[in-house]
């Protein structure tokens, strides 16, 4: 059975009005990532970090999956082989479009984590340091997001998929953040065909055998239709 591994980044949710990070008006042009996306920033000012993720959680609830998310869910349903989505995104738009087999390597906005006992639960819309952990009752509640300097989730599983896939596709990611930025080279060195679907060439463009450029809501459905052998 064939296996397609698809890495998605913020660009696939851009047309759902969820911001990207490094473009003009990107999140990292408005916030200092050291303050809101590192363990040190959380230790310094947990209320600022909770406010940042509470705002993103609310945005996510108001956002809708777009045609690119829907196309990937369709590919999973109709392809006949396995289609694994590895996403750097913390939104749930893949799942709300009907996708399954989704691996969130940077965590999820819908998750809460206890920094004291590692207990995980579903995050309320607005989290704060006043929310005690439901298990150990410590006031150590944090978003279940992988911050800079922390190890992404499910890496063993992801590398297993990468090196055993028939096709690796990266959609809507700038190729600036490792380890995800290294996935295409990892796949290519294992003899896996690599394709980039993006608005413009990423920083790791030379790790892709082919590339198509344009907005995800246009180029992803077209690519899926080709894969499903429809013209
Ligand atoms: N369609 C397709 N691609 C798009 C679109 C669109 N409509 N809009 C933007 N893009 C592309 C941009 O060209 C860029 O290559 O999406 C990419 C967004 O890049 P980033 O903002 O760097 O987002 P991403 O690559 O997902 O960042 C990776 O960095 O800050 C961390 O944890 C965060 O998961 C994030 C990681």
Automatic annotation (TrEMBL):
Entries under Pfam families matching the protein: SIR2
Residues of the Deacetylase sirtuin-type domain: 1-231
Origin superkingdom: Bacteria
Enzymatic class: transferase
Positions contributing to substrate binding: 53, 56
Cofactor(s) named in the record: Zn(2+)
Subcellular location: Cytoplasm
InterPro entries reported in the protein's UniProt record: DHS-like_NAD/FAD-binding_dom, NAD-dep_sirtuin_deacylases, Sirtuin, Sirtuin_cat_small_dom_sf, Sirtuin_class_III, Ssirtuin_cat_dom
Keyword Chaperone part of the UniProt annotation: no
Nucleotidyltransferase in keyword set: no
Keywords: Cytoplasm, Metal-binding, NAD, Transferase, Zinc
Active site: 106 (proton acceptor)
Catalytic activity as recorded in UniProt: N(6)-succinyl-L-lysyl-[protein] + NAD(+) + H2O = 2''-O-succinyl-ADP-D-ribose + nicotinamide + L-lysyl-[protein]; N(6)-acetyl-L-lysyl-[protein] + NAD(+) + H2O = 2''-O-acetyl-ADP-D-ribose + nicotinamide + L-lysyl-[protein]
Residues noted as binding NAD(+) in the record, renumbered to the chain: 88-91, 172-174, 198-200, 216
Signal peptide boundaries: none
Cofactor: binding details: Binds 1 zinc ion per subunit.
CDD domains hit by this protein: SIRT5_Af1_CobB
Enzyme Commission number, as recorded: 2.3.1.286
Domain notes: 2 residues (Tyr-53 and Arg-56) present in a large hydrophobic pocket are probably involved in substrate specificity. They are important for desuccinylation activity, but dispensable for deacetylation activity.
Task performed by this protein: NAD-dependent lysine deacetylase and desuccinylase that specifically removes acetyl and succinyl groups on target proteins. Modulates the activities of several proteins which are inactive in their acylated form.
Family per similarity comment: Belongs to the sirtuin family. Class III subfamily.
UniProt name for this protein: NAD-dependent protein deacylase
Organism: Aliiroseovarius zhejiangensis
